[in-house]
Amino acid sequence: MSSVTRAGRTRKTGHRRPHEHDPIEGEASANAALTEIGALPEDDARAAELREHVVMVYAPFVRRVALRYRGHGEPYEDVRQTAMVGLLKAVHGFDPDRGSPFVSYLLPTVLGEIKRHFRDHTWSIRVPRQHQENRARLRVAIGAFEQEHAREPTTSEIGGLLGMDEAGAAELLQADQAYRALSLDVPDSWNGDGSEGTSPEDRLGCEDQGLELVEERESLRPALARLPDRERRLLTLRFFGDKSQSEIAAELGYSQMHVSRLLAAVLQQLREDVGACDPKDSGARDAKDTVREPKKDE
Q1: Which spans does this entry mark as compositional bias, Basic residues (predicted)?
Q2: d(Cα 203, Cα 184) in Å, to the nearest integer?
Q3: pTM for this structure?
Q4: What letter would DSSP give residue 187?
């Protein structure tokens, strides 16, 4: 500990971590940690330690984001904890190989968690306060009725339970729907056989892992079409039949060494053909990189 004197007052200061003095230095160390995490197994102890460091660096930023929602109808502490959940998800889901800065992935993730929290815990539209107060009575009354009668009550029955007419009960039910916004996890009851349907989340699109390979495949297609039948069969057995060089040799009546030489020659020919399409084209270079024999003969 050291002492700092200011205006007649003395206060003690502790040794702070470097990123607490210099946010840029902290961000640089976090980026280095994220890069290292990308090369480690998910359950590696070192990866867990690095994730903890990244969380520590970006926690002040996430708290500032949460502060924007203070006074919006939810306790700040709940919003802060939700934002920290978003930070943890961002640390686990970030892919440094994409070349984007971490904060550009972090901010939408945190904001998404916060908005989901407000969607699940607050009214999605403004409704009269009377309906907000009666909602608790409505849920209790419906729950008790279902337990006793093993079915949902009708609107008129709900009105009788709450001491209001059918129109008032219908209006209260509509207000209740404003609170219980549709969840992505709730399945639709569309199946005619009474089985549980798919949820909206199941129908959302997802990242196509093969999309980045389209250009490479299209670059290879004409080069493959020009190969003689023997070479095409050789590639089919090796890369699509998942056969080892020894298995191919036995099937074609060649020696394993001869199969190895044939594969090396045909792959080299493909690399040259793809490169000849357009040497300056990055897609062609990427396709050349994909045309290679596995290192290990399984």
Answers
A1: 8-18
A2: 10
A3: 0.39
A4: P
